[in-house]
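Typical record was shown:
=====
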Amino acid sequence: MRQPHRLAHGGRLDTATSIEFTFNGRTLYGCQGDTLASALLANGEHFVGRSFKYHRPRGVMTAGVEEPNALVQLEDGGHTVPNPAATTIELYEGLRATSVNAAPDLERDRMAILQRVGRFIPAGFYYKTFMWPRRWWPRYERLIRQAGGLGRAPAQPDPDHYDKRYAHCDVLVVGGGPAGLAAAMAAGMAGARVILVDNQSELGGGLLSSPALINGAANNDWIRQTHAALQGMSDVRILSRSTAFGYHDQNLVTVCEQLTDHLPVTGRRGVRQRLWKVRAKQVVLATGAHERPLLFGNNDLPGIMLASAVSTYVRRYAVLPGRRVVLYTNNDGAYRTALDLREQGANVTVVDPRPPGRGALPDAVRSAGIEVRNESVVLQARGGRHVKGVVLASYVGGQAGPATARLACDLVAVSGGWNPALHLHAQSGGQTRWDDAHACFVPMGSQQAQASAGAANGEFSLALALEGGAKAGSRAAMLAGLNPAGALAWRTADIAQDPLMPLWQVAGRVRPSRGAKQFVDYQNDVTVADIHLAVREGYHSVEHVKRYTAMGFGTDQGKLGNINGAAVLADALGKTIAQTGTTTYRPNYTPVAFGALAGRELGDFFDPIRKTSVHEWHVSRGAVFEDVGNWKRPWYFPLPGESMQAAVARECLAVRNGVGMLDASTLGKIDIQGPDAATLLNWVYTNLWSKLEVGKGRYGLMLDENGMVFDDGVTMRLGEQHYLMSTTTGGAARVLAWMERWLQTEWPHLDVHLTTVTDHFATFAVAGPLARRVLQSVCPDIDFSNAAFPFMSFRDGSVAGAGWSSPARIMRISFSGELSYEVNVPANLGQRVWNALMEAGHEHGITPYGTETMHVLRAEKGYIIVGQDTDGSMTPQDLGMGGMVAKSKDCLGKRSLSRAHTASAQRKQFVGLLASDPAVVLPEGSQIMHRASRAPIVPMIGHVTSSYMSPTLNRSIALGWVQDGQERMGQLVEVALPTGGFMPATIHSTVFYDPEGGRQHVD
């Protein structure tokens, strides 16, 4: 099939295998081994996208992950992927891609009109517009939303599967170019467990598009031999098509491996991508470098490409992007591209701002008859949807003169030097320094066990890359505790080069804001003029300029433009680039699919599902469950044909009049041991704990630093230095992390250890007037009399059945206001003990009850549930529990209680509410006001937090917050209903039932 720019010979492709694909609805053809970008170029497709802001025509500019322009919408339906770079997509049969950010299509993009008004919408214009008239904001918002974004997020579920895997190794090598291969060889030969990660389909990196010789032979031979040697080492793992996208603490590197993305959609089987979490003793970063573009007018036109990318397309993909080429460079390395192009018959002119030198490559270019225009620069490119020519000017003494010539061309290859890929180095905590010789930032020092090698370390020649990689690999193996093998060395040609001339901008005689746009960030349309505007607006930090202009905000994360942007900023401020610095390198290095991050944790597997030891018993009895802190808790136990309301009423009355049993195993349990255990509790709880007797328990409130209630629960003193803390089900992990944070950061001197034991014990609450009788029949070794076993104490004993016995810790605690005991047994014996308790309670009509009944019972007594009746803005005083804040000691959050706002008498306070109509259950969340009003704005004085129908009281009850509520007892307020109506309610004590508390002390 005709591909007008495909070379007849060369490349690393299987030209005999033709691949059909579609781009913007047109059928095109490529070869096996192409990327989408190389196939498009082979078909003469240079205009492939539109820029984000101005919708200017854009074409393929690079050949790698740094591509800012050639973004596409890949595939459709559930398989669609928004915004992948065409340079990173391996071509496969049936591939479908469309341009993004263009409607109705690329050629007829309606938003292209913005090119004509670009002068009026510079950086930051959105901060100063769309403000008037105010009533037009909905229209503005619609337009902004239509204009925003690039590709389209999938509208259908992703049908692919993703996986996660953990790995440990001695040496992790990131990058499969010459430095990475040398490092992996050196470490592997030392016997190290090595993982080599490379983002391409084949190893070799820059060598894949280079004619360089190694040991006198083609570099392809060296790549093949080295690859085979590494595959022969049993402790070496090679991850191709894998990108290390994040470097985290303790040498944790995250890697995304693409397993089937290169296959036709219909042929994909198994896992699409795998997320690796690699923990390495040592890391070698051989991530290479990104070539810099040069700044000149209209430097974004399709047909303007990086010189190294042109060489890659010529040598690796057998594609000639242009036949009449201007090569614009400030360094010797790019002259290799001129030779590559001339070998394929292209007409090349080199434009170089430097005076003639003695570099080997420039000499070879001149010897090949290629015209070189020294001391010249490109002022501006000409063209519309494709570059048609350039305007040249003389360049002497660092100043550009007037235009001197116009050259016609269909391709401009540019090279402004190289920037080491410092992203992972910086993410690891490493610092950088400015290297004047190479005009780039290079690594300086490491915070973690890592080292950079090759171009990533500023070693841009092949000889230095191989040498640096081998040394880094050997040193990494040695630091990992292994004995390095002998030194590795390879012969390469030593190519003489003249120094690079830093060239950041060539303004000529025209102000940046008046001439043709010079683009710094191609994807977000950030220009030299935008950076100068930011400086005039007062933004002098590179981080502030980044946010004002959106420089580096795109999918390429500024890989091409940020150093140029920093140089322009430095010039505008009269500083050096070293003083200006760089923006922060953050993960992810390249975009990562949400599916890869989620893995198999989707749907039912999104969160761990935790079940108690008697879960199956609950299921067999028809329990309806609710999710609480990842636990499946029985909500209520309906009988056949019974509604939720009827089931809850039955369960409540059973507890109040007889006996019921609740599976409370999910409550958090934290074992606290050590000489300073009481000191820790004194700090985290508001009340005093050091004088609590062994065998007794105490209810405690926990505050955050702001003095707001954080959690609550009962803690038992098991021994002189041993406590068992209970927490809310949903707060267990949070409370444990909270205490560990303080112990590890503020109180490391405290000798105390915390262990979560929630899963270790099954806990069953036996509650009701007949609870003691049930326990007496199965716990023969415990005296349950009030005198021997008082409230807020525990006893160790056993639960016995027919032929068996289980150790048990029985706690006399009540969350229902009734006589109640919590039975704690080893979790693996939970079902047996539950059965024994149910059997013992059968004659007393024991009834299992769920969390909804528990909520009703506790609301009748006015007990709070942290997280439902509190929201992080309530103090103990607001709850009416100010007496629990000990005056004799300090605790976390206590000082915050004395702040003017916190101690104000006008704060909302916890109260009970009785609806005037006993049959109406006030909706939770309903707002409370002084009087009913339908005005647009009405002062709200509180809200309802808990509301239930009380079977015991035969009426509705509610708890909530009312401003100055304690002083308003007995007063009427209005509660707004969702229907638009209002319900009068009387402010009442929070305790609706048994205010004297006698029922929990019944004999």
Notes: The mean pLDDT is 94. The longest helix spans residues 462-479.
